[in-house]
Structure formats: structure tokens, C-alpha cells
Amino acid sequence: MRDFFQKTIFFKLSIAFVIGILLSNFVKISLNFYLIFAVLGIGLMLFFAMKKSAKFRYRFDWIFGLGFLLMIMCVGVLCSVQNTENQRFKFANEKGVFLITLTDFPTEKTKSALVYAELKSFSDSAKTENCTGKIVLYLQKDSNALNLKTGDKLLISTLLSMPETKGNPDEFDYSKYLKRKNIVATGYVSTDCWQKIGSEKGFSLFRLAQRCRMQLLDIYRDMNISGDEFGIVAALTLGYKDALSPELRDSFSTTGASHVLAVSGLHVGIIFMIINYLLVFLNKDKKKKRWKSLIVIAFLWFYAFITGLSPSVCRAALMFSLMAFGNVISRKSYTYNTIFASFFILLLINPNWLFDVGFQLSYAAVLAIVYFQPKIRKLLIFKSKPMIWLWDLTSVSIAAQLGTAPIALYYFHQFPNYFLLSNFIVIPAASFIIYAAIFLFAVHKIPIISVLASFLLELIVKIMYACIKFIENLPNALTFSWLNGWQTLIFFGIIFAVGFLFYKINFKAVLYTLVFSILLIFTILIYNIDNQGFNQLTIFNDNKGISVNIAQKANNVVFTTSQENTERYADGFWLHHDCKKPDYQLLDSANSIQPFVFNNQKFLILYDDYFYKKVSEKPLEVDYLLVSRNIFPKPELFEQYFSPKTLIINADVYAKNAQKFEQIAQNLNIKTCSISKNGAFVLRKQ
Question: How far is CA 526 from CA 409, 479, 555, in A?
Fold first, then answer.
């Protein structure tokens, strides 16, 4: 272990830097507090430097290391704070005219064209100011919007803001997700509210990369590769995922093969091996080996360039480049140090990548493969080459899953049971597809050969996708499970303990494995006991209709105007609490008044206001009254028809009507709860 720490200086630097990022994001204290740590770090380093005794330096070298790591931690804090400051957008929710520059080609959606852009300036009737930041825009779909290009400059008249969380239980925080992507705002722009005024004239490597990728995609289109085949080959070879259909994404996700659709370490590794094989003749002497390494690095970054310089490709290219660079300077690269060097450099560039799921998965997979794969491979010895190849692929897949399973379960709550079977297909197929694509790019202007090359490429893709669909339809293809943050950390503790067992079987390694395993079992038991008595009423923040859910362990009832909407908001919540498949009771005009009882309290859902035409002798007393968009706010609603203790205003009620409801309720001393303001209404039975 001591040898590991001595050889992997970047591991210690990375840990200190990560601690700084986490402190900046989750511990809200003054920067002056970190200044104390920085001064302490400098003091320790100076104290060590002033000691000239060799014996002291040998025994207390950790003093200098501690001081240096404290400095790195403070650098992590400052980098993260600076990154957060760059995300501040002072013109949020202000209507005006923005000058923007597109940073990518438009993506066609059902009713809009999605574009990413960089802010340049803001203007209104009083002022014009420069502004910066990345934004996401949805332009009303038409031919002009879809024909825009990266680098185009637009004037847009709109209101930009960051999406607000709805406050639904276990919901995905889209606002935080965008901030972690360094995006400061989003907005919608209708056709008559934007105008193209030109294009950026200066040189931009990123814009050039985007245009180069689009030209290569046009080669696929020119060769009549279309539909799902185009989506797969575009994503797999060039990292262009906009053509992937939801069904195709689900198929690859269900089978555990979605990693081939995100150009990253696997693809860069294939390119690395191809170039190394083609340049094998340069292995004859040290000077030629150096030239070979430089050529390999150049090709890696050329591949990153034609795939649009996406973060996932750049970090993989950086990792392999550092490995190749070790040969340039005639030093054998220590693999772990190389991995953590790329990790440290990338976080130095953008601290928010620490929270990126792809970033976490890629490094977890690489570290697990480097450590576990050789040890798993030694468990079985084969003599025949086909079996050796098969077992190598198996050991790599198992090792990668060991590293990524806790992260995947935490974020996506599912585990592909047939990941080994799918990897036997997609990894070799991905290699052949990349070979065939490179060949197609080389011969696309040669008539007969290009047709044969495109036919071969499309055939491989069709066979791979057919196999993926077959695996997807196998019984029990997915296991659904919910891991919280603590369980995820304990899961990683088990993996680390198993790693120690692989390294050396001793009492400590066995003890660590047992302790972490017991902790995980204990937390799962607590979770199951809590869910046994789970009984909760939730009115979801659904601005398109009504979604009322009474969720119990044995019974799950939903009153809704749209099953699809409710599932979008509630799927994660149901999985978290291990709820059964819901019993949907659809609300419509014929069923405009829906009463029910929860926790001995009377609830009433009003969906249609036809009752205004009826005559009531006295108001119906209820504990909670839920009103929706179709109910017009009138005082007689409460004076003649219903007498609630609490009025719940659904999220689909228009803002003006919601204000009228609140005013009427206030005059009658009725409590109000606005779901659009407060988030989901939750009442849990004790």
C-alpha cells in the first residue's frame, strides 16, 4: 500500500482536490476559513523546508506532504467557487433582446429545434450590457431554425430563466443538472422573436470540429444509411446521439450495452489499438518508438476532433495520451498514476465534471478493469485461443460492472442481468463497426467499393441491433432496485474490501468485507421495514392535469387525468418505496367529482364545474378540496356547494385563477395550499 501511495502522487492530489470541491458545494462557510487552511499548509511546508537534518526529513516527510495537500484542497475550493461564480446570470426572468452565438448544430425535437448557445449581450429599453454564459434554447420548429449552424449569431427576444424543481418526491433535479453542465438559463423562442444577423468570423477549433463531424455524418446519409442504423452508427463512431430514438436507447440500456453509444474509453481504446497495430514497424528502436507515440497521440486527438471534442472523448484521449507520452520521454507509465493524472487535470479544467454521471462511470470502470480484470483472468486458465479471448472479454465485463454497478443503481435504479451476453456481442461488433466506418470514410468517393463498404457497415449494425432486441426480450432482463447515498457508499466499501481480498487474503480483508456486507444488509432491512408500513397520499406538481396517488405497500391507487403524465412524475417514487403496479382511475367529465378518504380525512377532487348548474341545500363538508383548471373561482363554490377546511389549488390552475381562489379562501378563513408554489402536497399516515 505504501508503494502505491509513493508511485501515485496524483491519487493524493486528486483526493485533496475532490475534498475541496465537495466542501465548496456542500459546506457553506466563509472563504476566510479556507484561507486559514492555506496559511497552515504553507506554514507546514516552510517548517519542513527549514529543517536541514536528513534524519528529520526522512521521518517527518509527511509534514511537507500534508501542507501541500492542504494547499491543493484550498485550490479545489477556489476553482469550484470560481466555477459557481461563472454560472451567475443577472438577467434571469428579465424580458429583453439577447445577442447569442450558437455553439452546436440544432437538434430536431417534436415541436421545436433545440440549440445550445453562448450569451454575448442583453438589451432592453433602458440599457445594453455584455453578458456571458451557456444557455439552452427551444426555437419554434421550422426550416429556418433547423438550417442554423454552429457559429451563427442570433438576436432573440425572450425571457430566460433556470427551470425550477417541482418539489415532487424523488424527482430528477433538472435545474441542478443544467448548472452542473455550466448552463445558466433556458428559454423558448417563437419564430417571430428571433433573427439571424450573421456568423462568427474568427477561428474556433470547437466550431471547426462540429462542422467536420456534420460533414462525416453527411457521408453516412449520402450512402443511404438511415433510420435506427444511422442513429447507431452515428452515435457509436462520431458521438452524435441526436438521431437515437427513445426505443433504441431503451433497448441498449436494458441490455447493459448503452456504453457503446457514448463515444468514450472503449472507442478511443479501439482507435489506440488500431494505430498501434498499424505502426508496429516503428518498434525497432527507441527513437522510432518515440515517433510512434507522438503519431498515436496525434491520431487520438484527431479522433476526438472529428467526434466534436465532447468531454467524454477528450478525457479518454487525455488518459491514453498520457500513457503514450510516457514512451516519448522514455519512462514507463504507472497506470494508476496516469489515470489519476488525467482525473486531476480534467477537474482542474472543470470541477463540475466530478458530478457528471458519465465522468464517474468512466473512471469507475477504468479503475475496476485495471485492478480486477487481471485477477479475475487468473481464476481460470485456458489453452485454446477462442476460449482465452472469450474469458478475457468476460473478465473485462465483470470487472467493469464491479466498478460501475453502485453508480448505475444509484442514478438509474436498474441493473442489466444479461450484461455479459450483450457485451459478447456489442464489444466485438463495435470494433468491426469502427473499422468499417474508417474504411467507408476512406473510399466513399469510389463508386462500387463505397457501396459495398456501406452495405457491410449497415449489415453489422443490423445484426448487432437484432441481437440486442433479442436479449432485451429475454425474461427478467432488468433488475430494479433503489440505492440511497449511504447504501451506495457501503456498496463501494464492499467492492474495496473484495479488492483487498484479491490482493491478499488475510483477517483484516475478511473482516472489512463482513462489516460492510452486514452494514448493507442492515440498511436494506431498515428500508424494507419502513416500506412495509408505508402509506402516503401525494398530489404531484403536475401542471398539465391531476395526479393524486395513495401509495401503500399492498395497494397503489392513482386518480389522474393522464396516466402518462403521472408515470413520468411518479415512477422513481414508486420504485423507491417498492410499490406495486398502480390501479389507475381516470378522471373525466363524466367523473368530475371524485371523493375518497385517507387517514380518516375526507378528500374531494373537483375536475369539472358542471355542479354550478345544480342546486344544493347546504355545502358538503370535507377536510380537503382539490380544485383543478376546469373549476372557475366563485364565492358560491364555498357558500353553496363545498365547505373545506383546506383548499388545495392544483398546479394546472392558471395563475390569475389561483390568486382569485386564494383571495376567496382568505375571506372565508379557509386554509390554502398552492401546489405550483409549494410543490407536491404530501400527507403520510403515521
Answer: 18, 20, 21
Give the helix/strand (H/E) hosting 465: helix 447-472
DSSP 510-527: HHHHHHHHHHHHHHHHHH
CA dist 77 and 22 (Å) reads: 8
Please list, in sequence order, all residues whose beta carbon lies within 8 angstroms of the beta carbon of residue 29, skipping any fewer than 6 positions away. Answer: none
Strands 128-130 and 152-159: unpaired
Cα–Cα distances in angstroms (integers) from residue 355 to residues 306, 309, 506, 509, in the given order: 26, 19, 35, 30
Contact 524, 152 (CB under 8 A): no
pLDDT of residue 529: 78
Q: Which residues contact 113 (CB under 8 A, 6 or more apart)?
A: 106, 107, 138, 139, 140, 141, 145, 146, 148
- Of 131-145, 159-173, 605-619, the one with minimum mean pLDDT is 605-619
Predicted confidence band of residue 276 (pLDDT cuts 50, 70, 90): confident
Instruction: Count the Cβ atoms, other than its own, within 10 Å of residue 171.
Output: 18
Query: In which band, very low, low, confident or very high, does the pLDDT at 686 lie, cut at 50, 70 and 90?
Result: low
Burial of 153 (0-12, 13-18, 19+ CB in 10 A): middle
Please tell me the number of Cα atoms within 13 Å of 108 on its side-chain side.
8
User: In this predicted structure, what is the pLDDT of residue 451?
Assistant: 92
- How far is residue 454's CA from residue 100's CA, in Å, rounded to a whole number? 39
Residue pLDDT, tens place only, 423-479: 889 888 988 998 899 899 989 889 889 999 999 999 999 999 999 999 999 998 888
Its sign, for the CA torsion 300, 304, 305, 311, is negative
For the full predicted model, state whether its pTM sits above 0.70.
Answer: yes
CA 331, CA 341: separation in Å to the nearest integer?
Answer: 15
Beta carbons of 538 and 526 less than 8 angstroms apart: no
| Residue 290 CA from chain centroid, whole number | 38
72 with 37: CB under 8 angstroms? no
Answer positive or negative: Cα dihedral of 96, 97, 99, 101. Answer: positive
The pLDDT-based confidence of 659 (bands split at 50, 70, 90) is very high
Q: Are strands 152-159 and 478-480 parallel, antiparallel or unpaired?
A: unpaired
Would you say residue 1 has pLDDT above 60?
Answer: no
User: Rounded distance, CA 269 to CA 282, Å?
Assistant: 19
Q: What is the pLDDT of residue 612?
A: 67
CA atoms within 13 A on the CB side of 405: 22
Identify the DSSP state of 399. Answer: H
Taking only the tens place, the pLDDT of each residue in 304-315 is: 888 877 777 887
d(CA 573, CA 223): 46
DSSP state letter for 104: S
- Which DSSP string do the residues of 72-93 spell out, in sequence order? HHHHHHHHHHHHHHHT--TTTT
